[in-house]
Design brief:
Oligomer: single chain
Order of helices and strands: EHHEHEEEEEHEHEEHEE
Shape: globular
Largest sheet: 6 strands, parallel
Helix content: 25-40%
Number of helices: 6
Distance between the termini: 34 Å
Structural class: alpha/beta
Radius of gyration: 21 Å
């Protein structure tokens, strides 16, 4: 059985950081092929003869707010290690942008949905005659860094491989509901495993029934031991795992 694995790199990274802890070592130097094989073995009846791993990400950049950040250097080492080790068959790069965004001030509920922040003591809003304005909205501007294109690249590689009969089954590692349509279409043609790499509830758009389309679909959610159990060797050729990792 030929299994294609399509990974949303940023979704995987931030999910792992939330699950394992931002300052915790031991999860970043991830062996994508080992992770894929472990998840397939634990959650599916498949016995893959081959696993094709497509890693979709974007190169991060230092910016004016943090010009000496080590992140870009460490990511470059990791991407080169993926190529040198052969743990990814293809690395598909989107873009990384920094911009200023203006939006209402909010906090997240348990489902990570925004709840607008309203005036409350000790910060209250009053109008020109001194009357309270309890339903006022706080508007804030923030520096926002985000990748563009990873979800599109996941969708494109998934559908190309399925439609060109390059794979007999597929695994999508992402909890991005923007992938709902391509995953739905893939399920009409091959069995699909959908893996949530975050602590959040599985995205509703990625839900479905095991019998949809050709059937045989499954769902899984990663935990900390999944990340720790799939790590590359500390040294790969002349590349060394970054010390904080």
């Amino acid at each position: 059985m030929r299994v294609g694995v399509y990974i949303d790199g940023f979704n995987l990274y931030y999910g792992a950081r939330h699950i394992c802890g931002r300052s915790t070592a031991g999860w970043r130097w991830l062996d994508l092929r080992a992770l894929s094989a472990n998840v397939i073995g634990a959650h599916s009846p498949w016995s893959p003869a081959s696993i094709r791993v497509v890693y979709c990400t974007a190169r991060i950049k230092a910016d004016a707010s943090n010009p000496t950040a080590a992140g870009p250097r460490e990511q470059d080492v990791y991407l080169r290690a993926l190529k040198a080790s052969g743990t990814a068959d293809e690395i598909s790069l989107g873009t990384y942008v920094s911009r200023v965004a203006t939006a209402p001030l909010a906090v997240a509920n348990k489902r990570a949905k925004p709840i607008l922040t309203r005036p409350a003591w000790p910060v209250v809003i009053q109008d020109g005659i001194g009357a309270d304005v309890p339903d006022a909205t706080f508007m804030v501007s923030v520096a926002r860094r985000e990748e563009k294109g990873s979800d599109v690249n996941v969708a494109a590689h998934l559908l190309l491989d399925v439609l060109q009969n390059n794979v007999d089954a597929a695994v999508v590692i992402s909890n991005d509901s923007d992938l709902a349509f391509p995953v739905e279409q893939a399920r009409l043609r091959v069995p699909v495993g959908t893996v949530n790499p975050t602590k959040r509830y599985p995205a509703g758009g990625l839900a479905g029934d095991p019998a949809d389309g050709v059937g045989g679909h499954w769902w899984a959610q990663l935990v900390d031991t999944d990340y720790y159990a799939a790590q590359l060797p500390t040294t790969i050729g002349n590349l060394q795992k970054p010390a904080p990792w």
